[in-house]
Amino acid sequence: MLQTADRVCELTGVDADALPDEVLTSTRPVVLRGLAAGWPAVQASRASRGAGIDYLRRFDAGSTVAAMVGAPEIGGRFFYNEDLSGFNFHMERPALLAMLDTLASHLDDDAPPALYVGSTTVDACLPGFRAANDFGMGGRNPLVSIWLGNRTRIAAHHDLPDNLACVVAGRRRFTLFPPEQVANLYIGPLDLTPAGQAISLVDFAQPDLQRFPRFAQAAEHAQVAELGPGDAIFIPSMWWHHVEALDAFNVLVNYWWRQSPAYMDTPMNALMLALMTVRDLPPAQRSAWQALFQHYVFEADENTAAHIPEPARRVLGPMDETRARELRARLLKRINR
C-alpha cells in the first residue's frame, strides 16, 4: 500500500474516518496528501486567511493560551539566548481570541513579531471543533492539540508519542531525521529547553558546519516534506523533526498517542537517572553496566529469565500496572532516601 515518493513515503486517498494501522504503526514518516481536505476548518482557511481565523473564533471558549512572543529580529526562530542561559523569546498568557486578533493585525507586516501558540488542547480551548474536524483513529484515544502562529521555525526535536500532524492553514515544511542521527544533530541541554524537549543547536537556515561538522552527515539522511492545508504527516515516535511555518497565518492540529501501556513511565526518566548514576563511573564499571543493560533491557527475550521459576521472576517477569506501581514506589523510596 505504501508508495515511496522521493525519500518520503506518500499516500493519497486515505479514508480519514478509518486510518489504517499500517500508517499509524509505521516506523518511518508518511505524508498523507489531502487527508483533511474535507474539514470545514481547512476549507475556510483555503478561502482566505480571514475566513480561517473567523472559523476558529466561532468555537472559542474564552480560554487563555500559552504564547511564545519574540522580537522581529529573531526571524521566527524560537531558540536560546547567546550563552544558552535562557531564551530569545518570552511567554505570555493571552486569551485565544486576543491572540487571533494579534495574528490578524500583523498579516501584512514585512517584519512582524514572532508569535507562536503550541500544544493547546483542542477540546479545552475550541469545544465543538472536533465534531466537524476529526479523524478516525481506530480505537486510539489520542491527545489532540492545536498549534498556531505566523512564520516560525521550531528547532529539530523528538517526541515520545507517535504523532499525526495535520495542516489546517498555511504551509509547513517538515525536515525529519531517524533517531540514530542524534549524534549528528548537536542536541542542546536536556534540562533547559524552549518547550519541554531537547533541541538541535543547528540553525537549519544557515548551518555552521565549522561548529557543527557532523550535521553534514545528518543532512544526508534528512527527509523533507512541504505540506499545505488539508495535508497531514505521520511522525513516528523518537524521529527528530524541524518544523517551519511558511505563511503569515498557520494552524496545525496534531494527534499524539503511545503504543505502550499508560503505566509505563517515559524512558527519559531512565536516561536522566543513568546520567546521574552510570555515565561518570570508571570505564570498566560503565562497561559492566552496559552489559547488564544489554542483557536485561535491550536484548531481553524469553530466555533472559527462563532459568527462574515464573512466580519468582518478579520484575524480570512481564510488566503490568500493579508491578509497575510497586516498582515505582520502591524507586521513589530509594531516590528520596
Automatic annotation (TrEMBL):
The protein's superkingdom reads Bacteria
What is the official name of this protein in its record?
A: Cupin-like domain-containing protein
Matching Pfam families = Cupin_8 (PF13621)
Q: Which SUPFAM superfamilies match?
A: Clavaminate synthase-like
Q: Which InterPro entries match?
A: Cupin_8 (IPR041667), JmjC_dom (IPR003347), RmlC-like_jellyroll (IPR014710)
UniProt lineage: Bacteria, Pseudomonadati, Pseudomonadota, Gammaproteobacteria, Lysobacterales
Which residue intervals define the domain JmjC in the entry?
A: 79-272
